[in-house]
Amino acid sequence: MAKVNNWQLKREMEYPYEAAKPKKQIAYVFDTNKCIACQTCTVACKTTWTSGKGEETIFFNNVETKPYGGYPLRWDVNTLKNIKDQQWSASGEYKGSTIFENTENGERVRGWRPEERDYAYPNIGEDEVKGLMDKGAFFNGMHDVWMFYLARICNHCSYPACLAACPRKAIYKREEDGIVLIDQSRCRGYKECIKACPYKKTFFNMVTRVSEKCIGCYPLIEKGEQPRCVTTCIGKIRMQGFLGEPEKIRKDNPMDQIVHIKKVALPLYPQYGTQPNVYYVPPVHVPKDFLYQMFGPGVDKTIETYRNMKDDKELLAAFLLFGNSPRIIHSYKAEDKHAVGYNEAGDEIVRVPYTEPVFARPHWDPNASTFRHNTP
Amino acid sequence: MKKIIIFSIALMSLPALTLAQKSGDQIFKSVCSACHTIGKGKLVGPDLNGVHAKYPESWLISFIRSSQTMVKKGDAKAVKIFNEYNKIPMPDNNLTDAEIKNVINYIKQNSTVKTTTTVTTETKTETKTETVKETKVAPWTPSDISITSKKVATELNARDLDNSMWQTVSATNIPLAAQNIVYPNLHETSLAQMSVKSVYNGNKVAIWMEWNDTSKDVFVEVDQFSDQVAIQLPVDVNNIPSYMMGNAGGYVHIIHWKAVWQEDCENGFRDVKDAYPNATVDIYPGQESQLDRSRKLQSINIRAEEMVEKGTTFNMPGTASGNFMSKIKRQQPVEEASAVGFGTLTSMEDQTATGWARHQNGKWTVCIIFDVNSGNKYKAAMKDKTKIAFAVWDGNKENIGGRKHYAQWADLILEK
Description:
The complex is a heterodimer. By secondary structure, chain A is of the alpha+beta class.
């Protein structure tokens, strides 16, 4: 085991390989507050990548309802049971063990193997709320019970557990963009990655008898475009870009602005130790203890910053760029009236007004000599 | 006919920890020899010839117990060895000081440099190294177990498991150990031994294997595993590589049988519908026939073989990439592969081995047939003898990949 630095844990941790940082690191921001679980992302991904024989129960992208939903079943709690002392110091350093530490004899990762039936209910617990409503309860500005939607894809981790567990090195992290891939011609279907990945985002194909995973829509990334699940999101909850290392932050990179500078999006279960690269704006209405466990100790500050975003033009501009261009935004500018996004070459690719202009149409249309009706 | 030599169990390698205190000979053969030789050249790890003279005993004890702890501490010698051997970590050994001393004594007794002087300084160590003769290849030395391949005049057919010729060949007992040397490993054995017979007819060698396994495991599901067996042969009998998948520069030729491939050959490819009779899907892209209502063809009923015939495997990534694991139409339940160390197993283009198997009365019987000399430089070629090693997977006990039972090199002697 080598020692690597995990900035999300603010400490060094053990990992089977030395750190080898890609030139760029693919990253995503998902705003859970805007997700309505319409599953458009799920279907876009499914029809693009996993419509084949043997992929019937494989969803590289899924949206589950928390607290009860989970695909595959119990993916999160089964790993939480396996790691010890999930405490954080006041300065935000993780004190507990990761899945690479406290491993069982002879194993590289503290993993667990899902059962075949665990993949059979991709939308179990849909819209189920935490707890029962009391008789006579009414809406009083704050809901008595809660639930929220969690959209999930492969985290293209900086320290992938799937890669660590593969005895054949059939899993690799691309140098050019940090996308984690399973070499379909080298995999022999040992299923070690399936046991190891704490997010359970590697899948076994029963027809090809090898494992598959989210490929980050790399053919699109190579063309400078954002992945399918991002561009099809009707709620515009997602943005894909490239995240800098904490010591190499670019203020004009919307990902760096959101994740590193304003810290308004947090990794999912950072205590697992894989340094995941999908960052979530936590739901603002969910009990804090649940969120601390899920997103780490930064939750309070994140929610406060998120609630005050309307007064922070720089941050607001970054969020306005979500879902407004299929192309990857490498840098942006918060102009007076617009948020402007640029591609890698510095060309403007998108311009979004802070306030949508209002167009009023008079009731009488003189050209057609008729009244306009809003006919459904 | 040369009598088959069957050694008693006590001489065999048993997994570590089964005896109270093991001798250096036992430990070396069962644990160390996977990666090291004494005076026969480098394998995965260094040749240990004279290593007792090169390092102080206390250092050796710490290193043998946990080399990675020493590397992490930054011990210069440990780091140097680690880097020199491609950063492949030597696994920790749960041995007592006395047992480690037994191993060191065994190395001492078998080294060509017999010196008891402990050399500690770096410069002196280097001078000493020069006196230790480094052999590049590991030449033939007899193994504890020898299997004699009986000469027959008939054609050999793997499917003819009931051929009376097998009654005339005596079986060699091969003890199996849990692979607990490298990750991913198996901690407990569930199969104690297998029985091996062999015949050859001048062109082909047949290996007949039988072992007790009450559960017949044939699965493609994510949480279940198939039974398997593999034989391994050195490519060059004059350079015997590590019995653990070979080593850099030491190729091994592996022939691998899987219960699920046997099923594919006997009953057709094990498809989604075979594993889940009630499964249904909306549509598989690229399968126009499913839209033809007159055929009343449900998408789920389109078999994988049909997709291969039509060439519409674009959304079956493993198959489209030509992965041998993802092969839909299989003629043989065996695979020929090549390896030069852990994690390097690669399917060969040239598949000429044949095999067949049967599960009956709680036993697997598997027959594998291969060429005596195929002409392919990555396959085993033999004149009168070679080495053979075995691996067996108990699917029921989640055996897969490195989580397997193994047997070290045995001699395979072709009867004159």
